[in-house]
Amino acid sequence: MDPLYSAMATAEGGRNGRVSTSDGSVDVQLTMPKGLGGPETPGTTNPEQLFASGYAACFHGALLAMARNEKVDVSGSSVTAVVGIGKTDDGGLGLAVELEVNVPGVDQETAQRLAEKAHGFCPYSKATRGNIDVALDVTTLAG
Questions:
Q1: Which residues are within 8 A (CB) of 69 and not within 5 positions of it... i.e. 6 or more apart?
Q2: DSSP H helical segments within 90-138, as ranges?
Q3: What is the model's pLDDT at position 141?
Q4: Which tens digit of pLDDT belongs to each residue from 73-103?
Q5: Which structural domains are found in the chain, ordered by start?
Q6: Which residues contact 111 (CB under 8 A, 6 or more apart)?
Q7: 108-120 pLDDT per residue, tens
Q8: Quick check: 10 pLDDT over 90?
Q9: Is the distance from CB of 61 to CB of 45 less than 8 angstroms?
């Protein structure tokens, strides 16, 4: 792969530390989520929230690109990524993702097709494929 862009972030202190990007645009305090035994401190975040944010934005970008290619108006569409972390059979931890894809104003078949094409195109989907469970939940309800 020939990178078109590279992002750099540094974490210190693990899940109860801080993460920041090299350009300073992200600089956040991390706290272990309550579900993993942490205090869920207001004003902090965790790696799962950051991953969900990146995946949702990337997938929505892929959805918009697929819609442009097919000349389908997906105004008002959105993607919500729900990232879960839990115990795996080997005693460790693993991730699972549900992508809630909402494409109002188009029929269900078109929305599903665009979401599946986006799933094949999105770099986050490519990176997770075969590694973690990713489920697509596609709706066409007006928000």
A1: none
A2: 108-121, 123-128
A3: 83
A4: 999 999 999 999 999 999 999 999 999 999 9
A5: 1-45 (2.20.25.10), 47-139 (3.30.300.20)
A6: 101, 103, 138, 139, 140
A7: 999 999 999 999 9
A8: yes
A9: no
Instruction: At 104, give phi and psi (nearest 5°).
Output: -70, 150
Which residue bears the tokens 């059979």?
89
Predicted local distance difference test score (pLDDT) of residue 62: 98
42, two tokens: 């207001």
Give this prediction's pTM.
0.94
Beta bridge pairs of residue 10? 20
Which tokens sit at 132? 């973690």
Pair 124, 59: CB distance under 8 Å:
yes
Q: Note the residue count of the chain.
A: 143
Record the tokens describing residue 76, joined without a space. Answer: 């008002």
